[in-house]
């Protein structure tokens, strides 16, 4: 057990039953042959139950991350420092919800209904990205999300868009086009603070200090602790390991922050002679606590989504039954 009471990924892997038990081995061999050749798997094709289960888990988590991910930035729409920033933020937040729709559609092709996915999010059964359980307390947090979290998401999505499941890859490709605009606005807003007043630079450095660890966590536990990584890479759902993606991100973004005269709060953050980024222990206990519901904002994020679900119910009902006349209460 981890110090915080959660089973470690290594222990979980040892306890796992064989995910391929009972599969038709001939079909499985043909399926794996297709994947090895780089073919896309489509919804009507034969696939092992575990491939379907893993894809639903991962795409659903990704979709929830977009929905919940809209919240920290969404709270800043009314407080964005100029009309231009406000417009950009409105458009970005709207895009994130659009991404969630694309991803829910992709997951639905595998047989889980959107309603079931939303219920699992609201009940706390399904996970979503750790990073959205931290508060966006200043405008600098919004710029860090726009540049570094969108940047991290792009690294992950560009790589996995070349994966094996057709609907997920097509959704990721489209998401990446929009995310590249998000990145530009995030970069513009972040640089504006970086070259601004002493107070603006200090506010930005403070945001970098607070977001550094969650961003390191964003790519998932280290490869030796990743539960699903080996199988997902074999089936080309993940096209690179957690550590590889984290390394690619650090390679691209650490120099961009350092060239602004800013830095991440980790004296050990350094690229070694083999081209691998080394960093201090990022406190994986904090990561597991956060993804299991005990981060700083988990309760608040889910409460907002439950409120939205409840208060939007009449709209969904009206859309499903356009001919039904209903008298709404006047109060
Ligand atoms: N957060 O075996 P592992 C955005 C869980 S939104 C939470 O390595 P896997 C944006 C993992 O699920 C883009 N949980 O897992 C939106 C597993 O738990 P379960 C978000 C995490 O799947 C709005 C356990 O840890 N991107 O950018 O092989 C505004 C063991 O991990 C996380 C995606 O969702 C995490 N960070 O690899 C702005 C990408 N990491 O399910 C921006 C899609 C791990 O066994 N997902 N866990 O209970 C992926 O690429 C992969 O699922 C991961 C993890 C690399 C995240």
Give your account of this protein's structure:
The chain is an all-alpha fold. The chain has a single domain (42-285), classed as Ferritin. Helix content is 63%, strand content 1%. The chain has 13 helices and 2 strands. The protein has helices spanning 9-15, 25-36, 49-74, 83-108, 114-122, 139-160, 166-194, 198-218, 229-234, 242-258, 284-294, 298-311, 313-320, and strands at 270-271, 277-278. The chain has a two-stranded antiparallel ribbon with strand order 1-2. The N and C termini lie far apart (52 Å). The chain binds benzoyl coenzyme A. Benzoyl coenzyme A (BYC) is lined by residues 9, 57-58, 61-62, 65-66, 69-70, 96, 127, 129-130, 145, 149-150, 153, 156, 217-221, 226-229, 232, 238, 242, 291.
CATH topology descriptor: Ferritin
- The CATH architecture comes to Up-down Bundle
Output the helix-strand order.
HHHHHHHHHHEEHHH
Query: What's the domain count?
Result: 1
Bound molecules: benzoyl coenzyme A
Order of adjacent strands in the largest pleated sheet: 1-2
Overall residue-averaged pLDDT value: 94
Distance between termini? 52 Å
| Name of the CATH first level | Mainly Alpha
CA gyration radius, whole angstroms = 21 Å
* Helical coverage, percent range: 55-70%
Q: Count of DSSP E strands? A: 2
* Large-scale geometry: globular
Number of helices: 13
Structural class: mainly alpha
Question: How much of the sequence is in beta strands?
Answer: under 5%
Low-confidence stretches: none
Largest sheet: 2 strands, antiparallel
Name of the CATH homologous superfamily: Ferritin, core subunit, four-helix bundle
């Amino acid at each position: 057990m981890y110090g915080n009471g959660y089973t470690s990924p290594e222990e979980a892997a040892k306890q796992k039953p064989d995910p391929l038990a009972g599969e038709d081995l001939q079909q499985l061999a043909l399926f794996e042959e297709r994947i090895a050749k780089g073919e896309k798997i489509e919804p009507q094709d034969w696939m092992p139950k575990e491939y379907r289960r893993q894809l639903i888990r991962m795409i659903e988590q990704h979709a929830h991350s977009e929905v919940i991910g809209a919240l920290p930035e969404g709270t800043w729409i009314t407080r964005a420092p100029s009309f231009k920033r406000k417009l950009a933020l409105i458009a970005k937040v709207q895009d994130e919800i659009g991404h969630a729709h694309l991803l829910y559609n992709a997951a639905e092709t595998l047989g889980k209904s959107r309603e079931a996915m939303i219920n699992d999010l609201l009940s706390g059964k399904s996970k979503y990205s750790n990073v959205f359980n931290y508060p966006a307390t200043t405008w600098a947090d919004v710029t860090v999300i726009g540049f570094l979290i969108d940047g991290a998401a792009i690294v992950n999505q560009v790589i996995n868009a070349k994966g094996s499941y057709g609907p997920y890859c097509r959704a990721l490709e489209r998401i990446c086009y929009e995310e590249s605009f998000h990145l530009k606005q995030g970069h513009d807003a972040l640089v504006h603070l970086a070259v601004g007043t002493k107070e603006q630079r200090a506010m930005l450095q403070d945001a970098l200090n607070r977001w550094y660890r969650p961003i390191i966590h964003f790519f998932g536990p280290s490869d030796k602790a990743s539960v699903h990584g080996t199988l997902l890479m074999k089936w080309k759902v993940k096209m690179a390991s957690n550590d590889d993606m984290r390394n690619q991100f650090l390679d691209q973004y650490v120099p961009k922050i350092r060239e602004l005269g800013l830095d991440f709060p980790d004296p050990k953050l350094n690229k070694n002679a083999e081209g691998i980024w080394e960093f201090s222990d990022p406190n994986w206990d904090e990561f597991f606590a956060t993804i299991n519901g005990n981060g700083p904002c988990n309760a608040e994020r889910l409460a907002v989504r439950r409120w939205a679900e409840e208060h939007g119910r009449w709209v969904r009902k009206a859309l499903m039954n356009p001919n039904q006349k209903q008298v709404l209460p006047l109060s």
